[in-house]
């Protein structure tokens, strides 16, 4: 059973938007579906990347902030948002943007304060593998990384041949 977005509210403080939940969730629980009615081919501040060349407008979920130690996961294969750990009532929800975004339209500096903070949030493309491997990553991000690694392999083989 998929819960709805009704438990989620947008809170605005000093023009800074946060997405807060009115109910608690257990780790692994589905919080809501990810909207998929409005799909575009370029990322914006209001979209989440769902395949290599598709981005969906996520409605209320666009208020989700980035965290390097997030409490939710966006599962873009099953189009659901899942609790990454137990979440309390009135807690802000956040996810790791590079888990879905290969190259973001509006990069920014992260001040989340977690010990593994990546600082520059610009998409998975700009992070070392050693950083990415510590995170849950969407299938399209994992596939893009594997493609790049395969290209590296071909490149190395060509170098050896010459
Ligand atoms: Zn951070």
Continuous helix count: 2
Helix content: 10-25%
CATH superfamily: SET domain
Mean pLDDT: 93
CATH topology, anyone? Beta-clip-like
Uncertain segments are none
Cross-sheet strand order for the largest sheet:
1-2-10-7
Q: H/E order of the elements? A: EEEEEEEEEEEEHH
Assign the CATH class.
Mainly Beta
Describe this structure in words.
With 162 residues, the chain is of the alpha+beta class. The protein has one domain (5-161): Beta Complex (Beta-clip-like). The chain is built from two helices and twelve strands. The strands form four sheets. The protein has a four-stranded mixed sheet with strand order 1-2-10-7, with no helix packed on it. A three-stranded antiparallel sheet has the order 3-9-8, with no helix packed on it. It has a three-stranded antiparallel sheet with strand order 4-6-5. The longest helix has 23 residues, at 139-161. The N and C termini lie far apart (58 Å). 26% of the residues are buried. The structure holds zinc ion.
Would you kindly provide a brief summary of this structure?
This protein has 162 residues and is of the alpha+beta class.
Q: Which labels suit this protein?
A:
28% strand, Beta-clip-like, alpha+beta, four-stranded mixed beta sheet, three-stranded antiparallel beta sheet, 12 strands, 2 helices, binds zinc ion, 162 residues
What topology emerges from the helices and strands here?
Layout: E1 8-13, E2 16-21, E3 30-33, E4 39-40, E5 47-51, E6 54-57, E7 65-66, E8 72-75, E9 80-83, E10 92-95, E11 108-109, E12 120-121, H1 129-132, H2 139-161
Parallel strand pairs: 7-10
Antiparallel strand pairs: 1-2, 2-10, 3-9, 4-6, 5-6, 8-9, 11-12
The structure holds zinc ion.
